[in-house]
Specification:
single chain; 342 residues; UDP-N-acetylmuramoyl-L-alanine:D-glutamate ligase; nine-stranded mixed sheet; four-stranded mixed sheet
Length: 342
């Protein structure tokens, strides 16, 4: 039925215009966003058939959120209308040496009121190719975590590939708590999309200092990291690791790597990213990875597509990468020089 189904919380995003600080703002721009929602919105733009599962309050804010998802082609038929409020987050966009900053106002939001039986997972997952969620969802509440475990177990039983991004958020939980919870989820995961830091600090899989050159892992260290991940979680079928190096809040370097069937490490190009809106870059990357897997891309093709999706997202206001497959292909062909389309 669907290429990708995602489960998580979508929130109202409020941002001061431009690069104003929250304390000086007299108005806020409205967007909607959440990691899993950003992924399926981006995938829909590429032509994948997607659906999103969450709980939203039965009021006009819930209606507006559903309309946002529908506008970008995401199926909303499995969204449960229940609960009292939509979660909110305030984003202060960074620039130059000032980093971006987020303030959450999500306590008591609708998704946390989920009860077993609210979501018909068997119906939703029937015919689905990939089920996706993140560590953000696992961190929200005991109710949400229980529902995520139900979905992961059922997906595994039904032969649906489970994709997971650790997506650690320090404002939601500690590394130790994340390790405790995510270690319980990992046996169900087929596709792990994350970064080196989260592997080391959340999954507690370390690589000795001799394998580093500065803050970067040498290639032998990267191979060792993959081996230790595979030894710890033998059911993993695909591991994709992203790496970001920050020059400033306005410019980053981004690349990614994975392992091919021969055991060789495959790297993407290193992309120098100009940042208009930092939020959602990793989600755009994840969308590119999943699209590549769905369409049997080679490892190199998948990494080039996904890192370019990440780069393009940073030029777009809002949480999600509103791009088409044709635009991504065109950007790759032109090597991202921003030539005008006439």
């Amino acid at each position: 039925m669907f290429d990708v189904v995602a489960f998580g919380e979508i929130m109202l995003r409020l941002s001061p215009p431009g690069y104003q600080r929250i304390v000086q703002a007299s108005s806020f721009d409205i967007n909607f966003g959440g990691a899993e929602a950003n992924v399926v919105v981006a995938l829909s733009g590429l032509g994948a058939k997607t659906a999103y599962v969450t709980l939203l309050p039965p009021n006009s804010l819930g209606d507006a959120t559903v309309n946002y998802l529908r506008k970008f082609g995401v199926d909303t038929g499995a969204i449960v209308r229940k609960g009292k409020r939509l979660g909110i987050y305030f984003l202060e966009k960074g620039v130059g040496q000032r980093p971006s900053s987020v303030v959450y106002d999500r306590a008591g939001s609708a998704i946390n009121e989920v009860q077993t039986g609210d979501i018909d997972w068997e119906r939703i997952l029937s015919g689905t190719r990939i089920f996706f969620s993140t560590g953000i969802t696992a961190a929200l509440s005991g109710n949400v975590l229980n529902e995520l475990k139900i979905a992961f177990k059922l997906a595994k039983q039904m032969g649906v590939k489970v994709a997971f991004d650790i997506n650690f958020r320090s404002k939601l939980w500690s590394y130790d708590k994340a390790h405790e919870v995510i270690s319980q989820l990992m046996p169900y995961v087929d596709i792990l999309i994350t970064n080196e830091e989260h592997v080391r600090r959340v999954l507690k899989i370390e690589v000795e200092q001799e394998y580093f050159e500065g803050i970067d892992l040498k290639e032998e260290g990267q191979k060792l990291l993959f081996k230790r991940l595979e030894d710890a979680f033998p059911d993993l079928k695909r591991i994709v690791l992203a790496a970001r190096r920050s020059i400033s809040s306005s410019k980053n370097i981004f690349f990614a790597y994975t392992k091919d069937t021969g055991g060789n490490i495959v790297f993407s190009s290193k992309r120098e990213i100009e940042i208009i809106d930092r939020v959602g870059g990793g989600d755009a990357f994840t969308a590119g990875v999943l699209y590549g897997i769905l369409n049997d891309f080679s490892e190199k093709e998948m990494l080039e597509l996904s890192t370019y999706m990440c780069a393009l997202k940073h030029t777009i206001e809002g949480d999600a990468a509103f791009v088409t497959l044709e635009e991504v292909k065109q950007a790759l062909l032109q090597d991202g020089h921003g030539l005008m389309k006439r």
